[in-house]
Design a protein that fits this description.
Radius of gyration: 19 Å
Number of strands: 10
Distance between the termini: 28 Å
Low-confidence stretches: none
Largest sheet: 6 strands, mixed
Strand content: 15-25%
Strand order of the largest sheet: 4-1-5-9-6-10
Helix content: 25-40%
Length: 238
């Protein structure tokens, strides 16, 4: 591993519009947040990473995090804790706080709480790729369920048309250009890039492909129930 400094950042606000109290909802015997905290500790131990911090405005999440031995160095402002808050600004806020505190990480490893089925090995692959390659960030991707060149459409004035018109006619899915879903398994991003930019894709971004069954992102109750089923299913495969 390179000598780059890393911080694992776990962002978890209180409340949720899609699923009430999602981040502390019981998931296989533990609050949802606890699964990501556990994964973060395992990753830190395996790679001897510098720090793990939690950015939250929720007293319960603060209590859970501290009980797990995880830093909560500040309480996130309510302005950055609404359903409409820009996550990029939440990341900037955390980095600026760390910089003012005298800690200057080269990379930020962001682990969204809503993806509890992630494989630690996939996150480690992201960190190693970021350390090895000259890039602004590494994201995780999975095979897409839909393809904008073939079976995704737009509706304008009541008329339906393919979302992206290819140069050549496509008659089946196999002929369409390969596309991927961006997942929330992990983001490993340069701290300087986060502070300098306001979005991901002006940068030089690499990717690690993951299995879609480990990339379920919980937003509503249907996702939660699917994730519960997949956790049991994935454990049986092992």
């Amino acid at each position: 591993m390179s000598k780059k400094k890393f911080v694992i950042l776990i962002c978890a606000r209180k409340g949720s519009r899609g699923l009430k109290n999602k981040n502390i909802k019981n998931f296989h015997g533990k609050p949802l947040v606890s699964w990501t905290l556990k994964q973060a500790k395992e990753i830190r131990e395996k790679l001897s990473l510098d720090r793990i911090i939690v950015s939250t405005n929720c007293k319960k999440i603060i209590k859970i995090s501290k009980s797990e031995g995880i830093e909560v160095p500040f309480v996130r402002s309510e302005k950055l804790s609404t359903s409409k808050s820009n996550q990029w600004l939440v990341w900037k806020h955390a980095i600026n706080f760390l910089n003012k505190d005298g800690f200057y990480p080269d990379g930020v490893i962001i682990l969204p709480i809503t993806t509890p089925l992630r494989k630690i090995s996939d996150v480690i692959k992201c960190i190693k790729l970021f350390s090895k390659k000259k890039c602004d960030g590494v994201i995780t991707v999975a095979d897409a369920f839909k393809n904008p060149f073939f079976n995704m459409v737009k509706i304008k004035n009541g008329n339906v048309d393919i979302l992206i018109k290819p140069k050549k006619k496509i008659h089946n899915r196999q002929q369409a250009p390969k596309v991927y879903d961006m997942t929330s398994v992990a983001f490993v991003i340069s701290s300087k890039f986060i502070l300098k930019k306001n979005t991901l894709f002006p940068g030089k971004i690499k990717s690690i492909k993951v299995d879609s069954t480990t990339a379920t992102d919980i937003d509503k109750i249907q996702d939660f129930e699917i994730a519960k089923f997949l956790k049991t299913y994935n454990e049986k495969k092992i």
